[in-house]
Amino acid sequence: MAVTYEELTTKHPCFARGEHSSNGRIHLPVSPTCNIECRFCERSINSYENRPGVAATVIRPEEAAKAVEKALELCPEIKVAGIAGPGDTLASNCALRTFGLIKEKFPQLVKCMSTNGLLLAEKAQEVIDAGVDSLTVTVNAVDPEIEAKLNAGISWHGKHYEGVEAAKILIEQQIKGIKLVSDAGMTVKVNTVLVPGINVDHIGEIARTVAEAGASIYNIIPLIPQHQLKDCPPPTCEEIEGAIRAAQEYIDVFRHCHRCRADAVGIPGGKDFGDEVYMQRLSAK
Ligand code: SF4
Ligand code: SF4
């Protein structure tokens, strides 16, 4: 049975009530590929950028247990094993295989997964069977016209879709997926990348829709301008505060996301042990 929302507030640093938690997490960068094309996404393999979509390396599921062992030695406060990229966790079977292995070797760790949700509805049972405790789905719009401005296309069942047609499929699958896993007792957090001029006035509508589908908590991530949206300014503090107020009408809002790398290790906002866990292990090969 998945860990409850109340338990997550005491074990998972990103669900903690209040500003800071002393619990840590390890992100396992096992998911190399993606099946959608967010216009702001620039995935990268490097050790210097601090943002989602970046990892120093991609590891195989079989290497994840060693990484967790090393991470727990360096930072015993780690209570969560998460997978958040650098691509999408359901675009390959790497993340679900990894969770299967983590469940056996580290049953005490909370298992946390992030996905764009395109394959969530069809893989919901596999996600539940892998023992995932908390799931984050990134939903940037619930109106296909708006989503098409944020996402150029999707690859779905061997076909490529673009624009509004792609957006309709993505939104439908995300909402259906959120409903299925939250009905099964899993805690769902929804992330939205806040993009000025595109979805700033749409946040209340997203929050209402995902809360109705069963999501428990909502996280607004300010845009990091890059790729096709590199000339778009990041949201102002007023826009972020306005978005939080709009969302709070419908759902709890998480306020202290650090926009972590896909291979972050440690307590969010504190020292990062990613280099020690991933790079030293690789150079020792
Ligand atoms: Fe990038 Fe994530 Fe969007 Fe895929 S779902 S394109 S990895 S931001
Ligand atoms: Fe937590 Fe945000 Fe970092 Fe995810 S990206 S581990 S939600 S602080």
Q: Can you describe what's shown?
A:
- It contains nine helices and 13 strands.
- It is α/β, with parallel strands linked by helices and 285 residues long.
- Strands 12-11-10-7-6-5-1-13 form an eight-stranded mixed beta sheet, sandwiched between helices. The protein has a three-stranded antiparallel beta sheet with strand order 2-8-9.
- α7 links the parallel β10 (187-194) and β11 (217-222).
- Bound molecules: iron/sulfur cluster (SF4) (2 copies).
- One iron/sulfur cluster is lined by residues 14, 25, 257-260, 268.
How is the topology of this model organized?
Blueprint: H1 5-11, E1 24-27, E2 36-38, E3 44-45, E4 54-55, H2 61-74, E5 78-83, H3 94-105, E6 110-115, H4 120-129, E7 134-138, H5 144-150, E8 151-156, E9 159-162, H6 163-183, E10 187-194, H7 203-213, E11 217-222, H8 237-248, E12 252-254, E13 265-266, H9 274-283
Helix pairs in contact: 2-3, 2-9, 4-6, 5-6, 7-8
The chain binds iron/sulfur cluster (SF4) (2 copies).
